[in-house]
Amino acid sequence: MGKKLSALVKQNLTLCFRNSLIWVVLISMIIIVLFVNFLVPREYETTGENYYLDLTSGRSIETHLKELGMSSSSFMSDLEELEGLVSESSNAVGVVFTGEKEMPSVEVLYNFHIGPEQKNIINVSINKLVGTINDTWQDDINISFLRDQALPTPRHLATVPVLLVFEVLILGFLLVAVFLFQEKGDNVIRAYRVTPGGTHLYILSKVVTFLLLGFVYAFGILIFTYGVNLNIFNFIILTFLGFILYTLLGLIVAVFFEDISGWFIVGIVLLTLNMIPAISHQLPSFAPSFITWVPSYHIIFGYDEILFPTGKNLNPLFASLLVQNIVAYISCYLLVNKKIIKGVF
Amino acid sequence: MIKVSNLQHSYTNDNNYAVKDINFEIAEGEIFGFLGPSGSGKSTVQNIMTGLLPLQKGDVLYNGESLKNVSSSFYNQIGVSFEHPNLYSKLTAYENLLYFAGLFDVPTEDPLKLLDMVGLRDSAKKKTANFSKGMKQRLVFARALINKPKILFLDEPTSGLDPATANKVKEIIYQKKREGCTIFLTTHNMVAADELCDRVAFLYNGTIVAMDSPRNLKLEFGQKSILVEYRCDGEIKSKIFSLSNKEELKDFNEILSNQDVETIHTQEATLEQIFIKLTGRGLE
Amino acid sequence: MRKIISIIKKDFALSLRDNIVIYIIIAPLLLALAIRMFLPSVDEIKLSFVMEESIPSSYMEEIQKFGDVEVLPTTDAVIERVGQSDAIPGIILRDNVVKVIFEGNEPQSILNSYTPILESIFNENPQLNITTRQVGENQPILYGVMTIIIVMTAIFLGGTVSGFNIISEKDTNVIRSMAVSPLKMRDFVIARGIIATSISVVIGLLSSLILVGFAVDFSKVLLLLLASSSMAVIISLLIGRIANNQINSIAAIKVVMPVFITLPLASLFIPKVWHLVLYPLPNYWAFIGLQHIFLSEGSTSWFYISIAMLFLISNIYLVAISKIMKKHFGLR
After folding, report:
1. Which residues in chain A have their CB less than 8 angstroms from residue B84's CB?
2. Measured between CA atoms, how close is A168 to chain B, in angstroms?
3. Is the pLDDT of residue A191 over 70?
4. Which tens digit of pLDDT belongs to each residue from B131-164?
5. Residue B57, φ and ψ in degrees, nearest 5
6. Do C247 and A118 touch (CB under 8 A)?
7. What is the pLDDT of residue C140?
8. Is residue B196, in this structure, part of any structural domain at all?
9. ipTM reported for the complex, 2 dp
């Protein structure tokens, strides 16, 4: 088996070169490294802009807020100016204070629809703001943390787990489909079927080949963006399990199609759905249960923990991925055996 | 060595059979030919025998062991040359053979030696995407020999080849036979079948209509006579003489001695003529 | 003209017989529909909390005004829930004292969102008289960004369809027969441009309609899509040049598409002075125009400047690339 596997892996790697797939990986890697290092800022805000108009006597709220560090450009001089700014900005909120500083009346201006919960959240923030100025806000709550609080993550490096999942891991999903359709187009599967090769060898040869490429890609991105100051062992395990899972899933999907035309839409839709957990990664409070079923959800946070450790145990994730891989392999074996190795065509 | 019994196959899983009641045996070291027009079921039978199509009804025994029970090591013993070339277009000729060789558990031939045998040594480093049809066919044939098989399945091995190259391929086939290889050959080329095969079976509409050695079939269905063309008084005349008629043989001798004989042809039937006689249609 | 029409007819006939092309056209529309159904829940993101059952129900009623509350039977269950990947605080009762627990890996922005709420619920804090008023009818920013991405994708896909047709001609060697016909490179490019633009316009307009309805000026969307036609042709020529068959084209698309769409997106985050680096890219100007349409960014005159820049720059590149490609395709 070892000799045959080695022969097929060499063949597949040669085909990767001849199909320029190696170049695709290298160029994509360079683009990603440049993107992370030079285009994504270290810090950026995902919340909207707030603008204020203080119509209280003496504009004392404005004075206090400026003392707290707020920029002058956040304060407008009249209502018309504030309304214009809010209505034209894509994500701005305007706050108008009238009455007395100690207990002002507040009007909040929005330019898009928001739900009652979000209104309440904004209202609480304003209550706290005014309460802090007037020194009436009580912030006595008993907060504790399960683990030491994590250091703030540089925004540009926070994109690395996302890129590892949606660029590196899905590479196996794409490549295995590309290879399968090329083999169908060349009709070489027939020749393979009259050799002692078998289904296990067919699957393993693909997995091993693409895993090698995947590791090059993953380490290339990691080294040139984050560096190597991390738990390399965990990184290797997560990449290993994640990449194999996506390759097997890719093969499971691809066997149902005769050519790339048929596969294209299904493949792209699945890859797009796979990307939904990126929203949860950027907005961690957004995690409806259906998202947690997408394989990439837990993997992104796994990479997060490896790159920005907080002491979380990753063994349950690894165990879960191992089980998923076993199930995926069995399904893949049955399908490939039926549709490719023993299929009639 | 190979025994095929009551083979039947339907592509539509109903009573519409592509092949039915196929029975034949092939002795070890024999070249056995399946002759028939396109669509007669030749490739279907071969695909069943190599496991590319499932065994629906009937059985195929290899040295007494059913095809249903063979393990993957069976494929170490066989080589298959396909009618339609199926090569990795992005790999060179050499690489196609090299990586294929890696799939076998048995000693394999040197790819360069095989390429030399089929006249592709100079194209060893060229990608097969740039090969002509004939070159691809030769490479597919060479690939079938990589594992030094005991049984060869050849589907139209000389199709698309010029006469010189076709002869080369036939020589290799003869060589393999001399080495003890059992060869199952499917073709609609009666000349190739006549030259190569120890025995042939005519396949028509999925059934075998005749099976014997080419010589016996010709004797059975042909005429034992000769056609002579000779020049007489400036004109070309022709006459047929029966070999079993002594009087006619005397006339033949006289013409041979006294006339300016230009051509002599035996009137034995070709395999194609026999096929037409049996089925009412040709091989093309 | 006849040659151009002939190529267009042939390309449309082939495209409709090729599933991949039909899917390319339908997929963005399906994606737009999915976003339309799915995104409201993103932009009305509620915070989530998990509480132990024994916490007084009055607290739960208060917390429910701010988000979803999950109730679990024991402290350990709450702690385990807090330890999961998402950012959710747990509220437990320990020694008759209400405690709030976080995992510790939450970004500061998340803590800043939750802390005032919890302080407000568990303390007697003054409540101001706050009213709200909606001014303007903008879509949530995420909608605007998604719409921009889909319209950019529409332009790219228009070029991709044309690119696939070129690849098919290369793969089957039909391009050699075109090379020995009176067809010129100029006609080849114009025909491809019309096809690419038609597809981009259809996908772009329909997906905008699905996502934002009639809330934007569609004449501007149409103008931008028409101005992008040369850019779509550039994409088709690039794909047609790089790839020799459909399979290779997937690899080519994998590299080119993210660059096409992501580079302009980066302009949202980088300092304005760095935008100069993006000025030579026609897709940057397309993005600026789309920002004006869907995010109300920039003035109308700046929109028309971006359209003009898009048209000018993309045509300069197209002329240059056409000259280079002429030799590769063997056309005059």
Report:
1. 187
2. 25
3. yes
4. 998 899 999 999 999 999 999 999 989 888 888 8
5. -135, 150
6. no
7. 67
8. yes
9. 0.72
Q: Between chains, do B82 and A190 touch, taking CB under 8 Å as contact? A: yes
Domain count, chain A: 2
| Positions of chain C with pLDDT under 50 | none
Are C162 and C255 members of one domain? yes
Note whether A163 and A30 are within 8 A (CB): no
Question: In sequence order, what are the residues at sequence separation of 6 or more whose Cβ sits closer than 8 angstroms to the Cβ of residue A59?
Answer: none
A 19-38 → C contacts, CB under 8 A: 19-21, 24, 27-28, 31, 35
CA angle A253, A258, A259 (to 5 degrees): 90
pLDDT in tens, A20-56: 778 888 888 888 888 888 777 666 555 567 888 888 8
Same domain, A16 and A63: no
Q: How many independent structural domains does chain C possess?
A: 2
A54-57, long-range: CB < 8 A, 24+ apart: A54/A97, A55/A96, A55/A97, A55/A98, A56/A97, A56/A98, A56/A99, A56/A100, A56/A101, A56/A104, A57/A100, A57/A101
Which of B86, B100, B103 has its CB closest to that of A187? B86
pTM tops 0.80: no
* Residue A244, domain extent: 2-41+154-341
**What residues contact C66, with CB distance under 8 A and at least 6 apart?**
A117, A120, A121, A124, C46, C47, C49, C117
The CA radius of gyration of chain A, in Å to the nearest whole number, is 27
Residue A12 sits in the same domain as residue A56: no
> Average pLDDT, stretch B246-272?
85
Nearest by CB: B78 against A10, A191, A194: A194
| Alpha carbon of residue C44 to chain centroid | 19
Nearest Cα residue to B21 out of B37, B32, B11, B10: B10
Q: In 3-state terms, chain B is what percent helix, strand and coil (to 5)?
A: 35, 30, 35
Structure tokens at C163: 């690119």
